[in-house]
Amino acid sequence: MSLKDLLERGYFPKELPSPPFTTTPFANIVAAPTSSLPADFANGADPKYKQLPTSKITRYSHARGGLLRRKLGICNPLHYYLLAKAIIDNWAIISPMVSGTAIAATAPELKSLGRAIEGRHSQGARAMLAQKNRLGRRFLLETDISRFYSSIYTHSIPWALHTKAAAKINRSRTTLLGNNLDYLVRMGQDGQTIGIPIGPDTSLVLAELLMQRCDAELIARVPKLKGHRFIDDYELSFYTRTEAEDAFHLLERALSNYELALNPKKTKVLELPLQFEASWVTELRSHNIRASASGQAVDMEALINKAFHLHKLFPGEAVLSYAIAKLRVVELLPDNWELFQQLLLLCVTPEPATFPYAIDLIIKWVNAGFASAIPELHEVVNSIITTHAPLAHSSEVSHALWASIALGVTLTTEAVAALSMADDSVVALMALDCESRGLMSAVLDKSNWQTHMTSAGLYEEHWLLSYEANIKGWLPSVGGGDHVADDPNFGFLKASGVYFYDTAPLVAFPIPAPTLPTQISTSTAHSH
Questions:
Q1: How far apart are alpha carbons 239 and 274 in whole angstroms?
Q2: Can you state the angle between helices 177-187 and 77-89, rounded to 10 degrees?
């Protein structure tokens, strides 16, 4: 794997709408061997470099289902580049430390397609691993770590690489790689020592550095340990309940050495046999969809109907998202296009986390040549924006805006007003793009976003908006001039043609707004 791979395919969280968000232009420029980088880029990863500025992370609130959310991080390009470069340059040292333990299901592996770095096993392998690791055992210990990524202590990175004792004695960035990695992580999050960003591939590497040291300590103390760990989520199997309880305390002790703590609310000792997967997964997985037009319609409708029933029985579980995933592999027939869209959109209001998957499927088939999406999508998109923008729900709003851009959905006055109040860089950029395409029924109030168009703003939480709105010409610099061009780091990126938001023409087919009556009939008027 090259530095370019990690910058191109391992930088922005995969949950962002893609397109239009991209890091390919950035990777092409800063990872090119011929690039003449500014001083901070060229020297910032060197432990002897003392002039590196700090930056803050852009936050993106992602819906996980039900009321649960995850705060993803979009790192400043300067600091992500430096951390990625330090990891790539020292991969020969880091790789053996994250190559896997007997229970590490998510040991990071370099990939040629998709994300640059992914865990060895996907979440879909849980059932297979459970079957293997439960053989001959009677009890399970299930547990995970409280707020894992958000609670990682950055100083524990050198502890994991060099041992805690060695790192406590030697705090030099020059002689210990772990100290330099710790420093680069902190500089990219305003100097904070608690937490690492959720989303970039570098965080999986750092997390596994810690967790595999904890694995090793537990394995050394528990003979013939069987089980698996997906990042911070453990399933361990034992002969007796006492062994399982003892292992819990030993794991708790190992984690405490790295300032991590288990989540008591999610810790259970259970007696086998147990299901390998949730019953709703088994039920939906077994549902088949026929190839004929009439059979396909009946089976798709039955699938969603079944999913709605299971959604009520298993609140907070990703039932509706799983059902939509089943529809991704359907070879849709034109006769069922309208029904297909209706079924997808019926999932959105009760479970907004499904909207990104639903809209991606609709866009897929429109781009494949199907007719314009149904007019009801206009109402759904605007309702999502109006409801979720005031709640700072990035994923719902950004994918609704993506629907507007890709399918030509016009945004209502109420939706525009809600967007104007959003303190969110991803949402702001997409809203500005919608306005530039003439997809708004009113003018955006940009006064809140305008305050970020300063030199300092390029290193604050809204760096993405501060940079991208400038190079697109959507917002002027505060006080005139060009705050991006005046900054040596971002000025270099701008001069090199780097962008993180692609405004290439993406509209498939405009969706007509629902037709409203021009006048009220006599009978309707009297009824009121």
A1: 15
A2: 170
